[in-house]
Write a structure and sequence with these properties.
The chain has 221 residues and is mainly β. Helix content is 0%, strand content 48%. The strands form two sheets. Strands 3, 4, 5, 7, 10, 12 and 13 form a seven-stranded antiparallel sheet that branches. A six-stranded antiparallel sheet has the order 1-2-6-11-8-9, with no helix packed on it. β8 and β9 form a beta hairpin. The radius of gyration is 18 Å and the shape is elongated. 37% of the residues are buried.
């Protein structure tokens, strides 16, 4: 499956107000380097996983090229009443083709994950994410645990120091892979009487994942 998404105006329902506000001056990326003026294009090459069946994940790029969002519509892990045995773990792997303006390279500086959850007392949950460039061994992985009792929106932020950021190779096209996972365990709660869940989905675009980009110019040859 392949889809091309250029700007937030293409799928406005997926954009947060912060991402869809036009920039008043040359924007700075998360690392402080100016973002390229030419618009970037992100194409979903493949999408696989129980948390993102075909047609349930979408990507939108901010107008100032400093971030992009991923929105899911069926990303829910749960245990207990009404849940299937396999529902305790949901995952999604996105393989993205990022068309970068000539002479620039990028890295992921920060990722903001948002969702909603309900965990009974004694139940636990976990959100996990990793991302890497195709063909590179460097992988950034972060895990965020959740503990019941809990009933609220949740947010997890992964931040990478500039010195530790993994940059796309200059002059090469390497697909960018994002792997996410939600898991829920009943623990000491009673799954025959209760239901616990973690969700990272949204039908109105209000809940999404924001990836903030660092940019820098490639060395001139």
């Amino acid at each position: 499956m392949s889809r091309v998404l250029v700007t937030c105006s293409a799928i406005a329902a997926l954009c947060t107000p912060a991402l869809c506000t036009p920039a008043l001056s040359t924007p700075a990326s998360a690392a402080g380097f100016p973002a390229p003026p030419d618009k970037i294009v992100i194409e979903i090459a493949t999408v696989n996983g129980s948390g993102c069946p075909a047609g349930t994940a979408a990507v939108a790029v901010s107008p100032d090229n400093t971030a992009f969002t991923v929105t899911y519509s069926q990303y829910l892990a749960q245990v207990g009443v009404g849940a299937k045995p396999t529902d305790f773990r949901k995952n999604c792997q996105l393989n993205l083709i990022v068309h970068v303006p000539q002479g620039f390279t990028y890295a992921i500086a920060q990722a903001d994950y948002r969702g909603f959850g309900h965990l009974e007392e004694g139940a636990t949950g976990q959100q996990k994410a990793s991302y890497y460039f195709q063909g590179q061994s460097q992988t950034t992985t972060n895990v965020h645990p959740h503990k019941g009792p809990f009933h609220d929106s949740w947010q997890a932020t992964d931040t990478t120091d500039i010195a530790a950021q993994v940059w796309a190779p200059c002059g090469e096209r390497r697909n960018f892979n994002i792997n996410t996972e939600l898991t829920v365990s009943a623990g000491t709660s009673d799954p025959k009487k209760t239901t616990s869940f973690l969700a990272m989905d949204s039908t109105d675009g209000a809940i999404n994942t924001v990836y903030r980009l660092s940019w820098k110019e490639c060395p001139r040859r």
